[in-house]
Amino acid sequence: MKKGQKRHSAAGGKAGNPILLEVLLEEESANEALKPLISKITTGMRVKIGVRQFQGKPDLLKKLPDRLRGYAAARNRGEDIRVVVLLDRDEDDCVKLKKRLDDYATKAGLTPRTQRRQGGHFHVLNRIAIRELESWYFGDWAAVKGGFPKAPRLPPRNYRGNPDAASGKCSDAFEGALRSEGIRIASKPEWGRRIGPHLNPDGNRSPSFNAFVAGVRDILEL
Q: At what angle do helices 28-41 and 207-219 cross, to 10 degrees?
C-alpha cells in the first residue's frame, strides 16, 4: 500500500450485502476505457458494478433526474446503491455544471459528496473530466503505449505536464499524435478498448483523473 493511501475494507455494504455501484457515463468510449479501471479500483471489495452508457452528454443530463429518483427509491428499500456520474466538461462552466449535477442528486433525495456532513456518508459522486476523456490518456502515456505500441515515445509537448491545462481540443490532439506514427484509428471507443486495461489508478498526471479515482475510493468507504 502506498504511503497516505486509505485502506479499503473488502466487506460489503449494509448487513454485509454487496455495495451496488452504478456508474453513469456519456458514451461508449468512456464505457470502454473506465470499466477495467473501476474493476482495478474495486479489487478485493464486495462490489457489484453497473456501468451505464448514454447517447452523449445531453441524453445523460436529460435522463439523470429520473434515474436518480429510482436509485433513491431503491435505497429506501434497503439496497446499498452508490452512484458515480462522469461528464466531460467540454466548453461548459465547470462550477455551474457540477452544481447542476449536485442539485439533481439533492432533489432526488440523495446526498452528493459536496453536501455530506463531516465524516458522514454520501450517495452520489459527480465528477468532471477536464476537458475530455482523452486528457486522461495524455496523463498516462504508458497506458497509451500499452494499447498502441507504435504511438510516439512521448505525448505532444503541451500535454507533458498537466494535460487538463492544455488548450485546444484534446481528442483532436490525441488523434494527431497517433497519426504522426501512422496509426489511423479515429474511433474513440477503440481508443478506450485499447487503453482502458492499461490505465493506472495511481499513475496519472491529470488532476481530474486523480479526483475521479479518489472520489470512487471515497464513495466505497464504509
A: 60
Cell 470512487 belongs to residue: 216
Encode 160-179: b = buried (16+ Cβ within 10 Å), e = exposed: eeebbebeeebbebbbebbe
Q: Could you read off the pLDDT of 38-87 as tens digits, one per residue?
A: 999 999 999 999 999 999 999 999 999 999 999 999 999 999 999 999 99
CA distance 37 to 199: 6
40 Cα distance to chain centroid: 13
Residues with Cβ < 8 Å from 45, sequence gap 6 or more?
8, 9, 10, 11, 12, 19, 220
User: If we measure between CA atoms, which residue out of 149, 215, 89 comes closest to residue 100?
Assistant: 89
pLDDT above 70 covers what percent of the chain?
92
Look at residue 222 and tell me whether its pLDDT is greater than 70. no
Q: pTM here?
A: 0.88
CB within 8 A of 181, min separation 6: which ones?
150, 151, 152
